[in-house]
Amino acid sequence: MDFEEDQTSSSQFDVYRHRAEVTYRKFLDYITPHIIARWIATYVIIIIFMARILVVEGWYIVCYAWAIFLLNMFLRFLTPKIDPSIEQDIQNDSVEAGTGKMDENDEEFKPFIRRLPEFRFWLKTTVSTVVALFCSLFSVFDIPVFWPILVVYFIILFMVTMRRQIQHMIKYRYLPFDLGKTKYGSK
């Protein structure tokens, strides 16, 4: 009899879990086209989190871990899905082996495909901010640390990684932002 009760409660849990997943998917499908509204909501959550950190003067480690995670996600957002340096090495190997001919005029148009799409970047940013805000509610995560060192270290880390990313973008001539449709002179 206990086995049947366990199976019934387990199947009820599966039904509720499935309903929650479907509701979550419907919400994500609904909000996907509303890019500006999504980012405004995320910025509001970020402002609430930052205000909490500044007002209570604590949870600097949580804030630092959150900032490092966002920096990592931002770099993945700026990086192409297929690394051009690896693609160039493959092309150079095929030219040296004599299997292909390359001219300077053989550049074909390749659209920029991100390693981390905008929607995933938004979703991970929002979820990580909510998790960081949640962690800032518990004193176990309030580890005492001299916060100016964390700020200086994050600024240095940001500058070094962005410098490397910009050099990579210049070297392989790609631009991770769509500047819109080209407009020609009006007639």
From TrEMBL:
The keyword Membrane applies. The keyword tRNA-binding does not apply. The chain crosses the membrane at residues 35-53, 59-78, 121-139, 145-162. It is found in: Membrane. One of its GO terms (cellular component) is COPI-coated vesicle. It is a multi-pass membrane protein. Keywords: Membrane, Transmembrane, Transmembrane helix. Its main location: membrane. GO terms for biological process: protein retention in ER lumen; retrograde vesicle-mediated transport, Golgi to endoplasmic reticulum. It comes from the Eukaryota. Coiled coil: none annotated. Involved in the retrieval of endoplasmic reticulum membrane proteins from the early Golgi compartment. Belongs to the RER1 family. PANTHER family: PROTEIN RER1. This is Protein RER1. It comes from Pichia membranifaciens NRRL Y-2026.
